[in-house]
Amino acid sequence: MHQFEHHLGQIPDVLAMLVTLAQPTIGVSRGGSRFDRLQITGGNEHRDLGDTIDETLTRDAQYLWGLLTGYAATVWEQAPESREDAPDLAGGALTTAGAAKDAALLTVGWLIHHTPAAYTLQLVEDERELFSTVRRLKAVHGIHPHPRPTLCDTCGRRRVEWDYTDVKGGGVLRVGLCRSCGETFIERQDEGENR
């Protein structure tokens, strides 16, 4: 799978997980659960709901969404042939995990569909920032989307899972691990290469 599609394809899951993790935790009473209204248990403790939302996760979700929509807007502005079926990037995408994933899927699908147009724009710095942010957020928050496995050159089974990792001093490695025989594969990639 190409680096461009690989990273874009992980954004919906990463964004949805960040939004899910940023939601406030709601206590459950002994008498049963009601999920249609807020429940805070624990006696006379008074909490402000805003205090229970993880600001770091919220900020990370907003930053990733901003990078994705900024990149999409740049493609839309600079590639007129991509405008006819562009997604609506209006606000409200981060209100729920489902809304975040849906908005990201539409945006990512549109970008992948217009890969040739994006490629001609040479937005290497924008891609580098977007893709390194995806890798960083996955590592920091322990988010691991499951990519489609590929064929192993060693055992012949379709069990190799690929991912990308940053290299100290710059650059990116494409790393694969066969979940059947344990063989590892490492390929050095340059940012913007192998779209």
Structural description of this entry:
There is one protein chain. This protein is of the alpha+beta class and 195 residues long. It has two domains: 3-145, no CATH class; 147-195, Single Sheet (N-terminal domain of TfIIb), CATH 2.20.25. 44% of the residues lie in helices and 12% in strands. It has helices at residues 3-22, 55-78, 97-113, 115-121, 124-141; strands at residues 150-151, 158-166, 172-178, 184-189. It has a four-stranded antiparallel beta sheet with strand order 1-2-3-4. Helix 2 (55-78) packs parallel to helix 3. The termini are close together.
Radius of gyration: 20 Å
Describe the global form. globular
The computed structural class is alpha+beta
Mean pLDDT: 80
Helix content: 40-55%
Major beta sheet summary? 4 strands, antiparallel
| Number of strand elements | 4
State the strand order across the main sheet. Answer: 1-2-3-4
**Strand percentage:** 5-15%
SSE succession: HHHHHEEEE
Poorly predicted regions: 44-52
* Number of structural units classed as domains: 2
The total count of helices amounts to 5
Termini gap: 9 Å
